[in-house]
Amino acid sequence: MTTTASGPRLGAIRARTISARTAKYLSLVIAAVCTLLPLVTVLFASLKTKQEYGATGPLTPPENWLNLENFAIAFDSGEMLQGFVNTAIVLAVSLAGTIFIGTMAAYALDRFEFRGKKLVMALFLIATLIPSVTSQVATFQVINGLGLYDTKAALILLFMGTDIIAIYLFIQFMQSIPVSLDEAAMIDGANRWTIYWRVVLPLLKPAIATVVIIKGIAIYNEFYSPFLYLPSEDLISTSLFRFKGPFGSQWEIISAGTLIVIIPTLIAFLLLQRWIYKGLTSGAVK
């Protein structure tokens, strides 16, 4: 009786296991197709001539797989080299400022007790809840009033001053650093700046790596702020806008430029993916 009854039960368990496994791989295949299909379309478009692009569909393979003329036009006419240089300057200064301001603010909020501390934390929380689009007019007036419009300093100031998430991330990591390290350093004669610079900051390397990766990718891909606040110079995200005008768009060249823009991000991800996963998971459980 036991053998007879267990047969259908084992069959049902095996059927549920097969169904779950099929659903898992089916969802992965769908996700992979949704991710790769736009990239394949861009790759095909980048290798086509203008006439070929207009006469064929988006998923039609190019006739000449070695047609790299669009890449050369995008790089030269789009002044992408200057765009990479401008992006590197804005990126480096913004990240350095974000790390310095964020770690200093987190150190003050985590290690010091002062009047109004809860109010400051509440204001940070409120700032994260306000949609950025609602403050664009006021932000533009402030930048223009400071005389920073159409300068790289406007972008650097905006990128450094609007990252409340980085401050929260630094606070979460700093709470795992024992206060006894600060006290031991003070007994040895170190002042607060020395403790921050030589004790706390080196221990924040995982958090700094996480902020550099997440913030760096966000700045690299940002289009709205460079387009609005730096119209006379191109960053890499706005350089492709040259090929879009009132008389039409050169999508085959834009596609080639898009692939050029993706290359640094792809290399950075392949080199730093271990830090990305480690930083995100560490921040999630603290």
From TrEMBL:
Domain ABC transmembrane type-1: from-to ranges: 84-272
UniProtKB keywords: Cell membrane, Membrane, Transmembrane, Transmembrane helix, Transport
Residues passing through the membrane, by range: 25-47, 84-107, 119-143, 155-174, 195-220, 253-272
Keyword Cell membrane included in the entry's annotation: yes
Predominant cellular place of this UniProt entry's protein: membrane
Bilayer disposition of the protein: Multi-pass membrane protein
Pfam family membership, one: BPD_transp_1
Family matches, as InterPro entries: MetI-like, MetI-like_sf
Localisation: Cell membrane
Family indicated by similarity: Belongs to the binding-protein-dependent transport system permease family.
Name this polypeptide is given: Carbohydrate ABC transporter permease
Organism per entry: Agromyces aurantiacus
